[in-house]
Amino acid sequence: MQPNPAITLEKRFCAHNYSPLEVVIVQGEGVWAIGDDGRRYLDMMSAYSAVSHGHAHPRIRAAAMAQIDKVSVVSRAFYSEPLGNFLQTLCRISGFDSALPMNSGAEAVETAIKAARRWGYRVKGIAANQAKIVVADNNFHGRTSTIVGFSSEPAYKADFGPFCNGFSEARFGDIESFRAAITADTCAVLIEPIQGEAGIRLPPAGFLRELRQLCDETNTLLILDEIQSGLGRTGKWFAFEHEGIRPDALILGKALGGGIMPVSAFVADHPIMDLFDAGSHGSTFGGNPLAAAIGLEALKVLEDEGLIDNSAQLGRYLVERLTALGSPAIREIRGRGLWVGVELDRDARPICEALLAEGVLTKETHENVLRIAPPLSISREELDWGLERIERVFKQLV
């Protein structure tokens, strides 16, 4: 077999900081990705939830093209027409007063860190340069040098130090560990309500309610990173809604870009957001007209097309079907909505490769967890198509 020229060129000229499966995707249509050989693959990964609406959603694509025909980038040195409409809709849906638009999820996390520290100094009264943020073990919030500095994953940190101070770690899901970690100098707790890269790990029921109460008692901000879990992925707009709480601030991204471009946001009420003044933070591309037009339509599609209810209903069905496999290779199935991790007793990479051969795109996380996260637009028939092939692969393991 002749080597694939696209793969050859990428391996030659691109940094080897990923380990992709051996397939070249040239087109996407809804829940389907098309390879360079014309084969159709069911996308059950959704680019880590960035393609929640499906590939090339016609409404989002039309909104993008219409804005491109007007103006794409002006920077926030000037006002632009789409941005206010986008952020008004985002604030209405999230229930917060204000939003600061960025591009990548990591940028929005860095924005949250700045906001938390400034709040700590100017509102809580923490001494200069002493503010601390408590994070969870096995967290994943991005890959900037600040963020990997408080990761507990050695592979993310090796030979990238020295790292930024000001972070302490508590055990995910253990309220007493967080209680012990919070001090008078703690300005915020930053946590994922469901840990994605750690293997779709859910905390015990009631943990987020206890954490909300603890933050209230200690005058500490509760900031939730819902870059992956937010915008319908778990069967509700936001994962925190499953516990009936409200954080002090929210970090969003991935699906906010409608599967077209990176769009993220830090969302909070005025007492936090108004601590940013002119020149204190910014991004050349953050909140550009094209991103705003895409983000607005991405939110409208989630509202109009019932994708969040679809995630809730088909998510339950997905777990039922996976549980019914009864495979001895499966240790645990966990998740919410159309976001499921299948923990295995072995390396998940060969299973991803076997599924690729069957026409299903998935990817492993933490070596032994199979991640299943199709677009929220998937139909039951399409999901059944994928599940039949997953069942076939697991039967071959016996």
Automatic annotation (TrEMBL):
UniProt entry tagged with the keyword Ribonucleoprotein: no
Cofactor: pyridoxal 5'-phosphate
Pfam families: Aminotran_3
PROSITE patterns tied to this protein: AA_TRANSFER_CLASS_3
Keywords: Aminotransferase, Pyridoxal phosphate, Transferase
Claim: ATP-binding is one of the keywords in the record: no
Enzyme Commission code: 2.6.1.13
A GO BP annotation: L-proline biosynthetic process
NCBIfam families named among the record's database cross-references: Orn_aminotrans
Protein family: Belongs to the class-III pyridoxal-phosphate-dependent aminotransferase family.
The protein's name in its UniProt record: ornithine aminotransferase
Protein's organism: Pseudomonas gingeri
Gene: rocD
